[in-house]
Structures are given as structure tokens and as C-alpha cells.
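DM from R.C. (forwarded with permission)

"hey, sorry to bug you on a friday — could you get me a structure for this? deadline for the figure draft is monday and I only need the backbone to look sensible"
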Amino acid sequence: MSRRWIAALALGCGLALGAPQARAEIDGHGPDAWRVTGVAADDVLNMRMGPGTGYLVIDSLAPDARGLEQITCVPLLLPAIRQRLTPAQRADLPQRWCLMRTADLGKAGWVAQRFLAEDTGPAPGPGDPLIAEAVRLVADLYAAFETQRHAGENPFAPPLARAYFQAALIPDLAGQGGEVLYDAQDFQGRITRIAPDAAQPMLRGMITINADFINFGLPGRAVFRLRADPAQPGAPVRIFRVEHDGWHFPP
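My reply, with the result:
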């Protein structure tokens, strides 16, 4: 589990980010960069003084904001704690809020976690919008799976699965999850990188995205193959195959 030195935040008391530092345990995993997701292009993500809608809005983030730093989230849900909770207990948890700040330290505040995703891919360039979208989709899949509170939020279950997988794959996704993402039913570790394949990111319309992770101290990689899905409106880029060392899904 990663640890970060962070500045003490007390916005309601008028203290600045340069106040004496405190050490905090971060319950998330993956790189120290996050982005805003799920916010309309003509809207903003509110940043609040505390973790909830009852707190004052003190700033906002653009719908495409990237490079954000996550300080901590509440309720605390370390992987080891999550594994001990029953599905009913997870479903009873309140909405999670995360204390975020921008890379330049110009903004800081609490935002609803459902509007955050790991910013693990390279910055989109003018020539690779489909590849950048594929990176975002894979990162969103991991984030959605890790933050689900009940069966209705499982990204492998319909109708959510269509946002990540090709329509033809939906019947095969029942009962799937950790095995496909981590090559194991249980996960205790961190995502280290999600990025296009360096050797061949795209070939004849097929995009390859590699997701590297550490699980129970061992390195692993999931290779995602994506391409346009003509069975869905607008033919969006969707996952049609996931490969691990020695096996793949679907079989």
C-alpha cells in the first residue's frame, strides 16, 4: 500500500496548503494521478469543504481535468477491509467522497468518487483519439469494479457491461470479474500502469492496451483487445478479448 506525504488541509479554518505536513494512508491503488469522468462537457465537478453535499462548494474542476492527486477517501476502504465485508455490508456503505487537489496546488476539496477515474494513460494526442479512448475505457473498468457497492454496479453485469465490452460478449460475462482483471478471484495490491502496447498499439482497427498490476506481491499483466462494436449504436470502441499468461477470455 502506497504512502504519501500530504499537506494538512483545513480550508474552513483558513489554513493554507503549506501548513505542517501529516502522513496519511491512502486506500486507493495505482498511480498518483486521477481525472474527472462522467461530467457533461458543459458542466463542472464541484469541490466541497467536506465529504458530502451538505458542505459548502469552494471550487470546481473542469469535466476534462487531469493529473489530480488523491489525498484520501471516506469511508476508509482498504482492500483488506473490503474483502472482509459481506455484499450486504458493502451495499450499506454511504457514497464515497475523496479529498483531491490539482497538481499545481491551486485547488483542493472533496468530490464524489464516482466522478473520478485513474489517469493512467498518456495524454491524448491529435493522432490517437481512439487509442486514448481505449485507455480511458480500460481504466474506467478497473475503477468501476473496485468501487462497486452492490450487484447493480458490477461492470460485468448487464446493462453496464455494454459500456466496456462488445455486445456479443455479454452472455459470457455472467459470474466474471476479478479473474478477468487480475488473473485471480482476490486482489490485494495496486495497478501500476495502463497504457497502449508500445510495440503495436493499433493494427487494422484492433487496439491493444496493457494493464500492469501487483497482486499479493506478484507482478501481472492483463492484455485488452478492443475494436469498434457495430452491434452498438455509433459503433463505439469496446473490449472483445482479455489475455493473461497461459489463458484468455473468452475461452
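R.C.: lifesaver. Confidence is low (pLDDT under 50) at residues 1-30, 123-127.
me: no worries. The chain has two domains: 3-118, 129-249.
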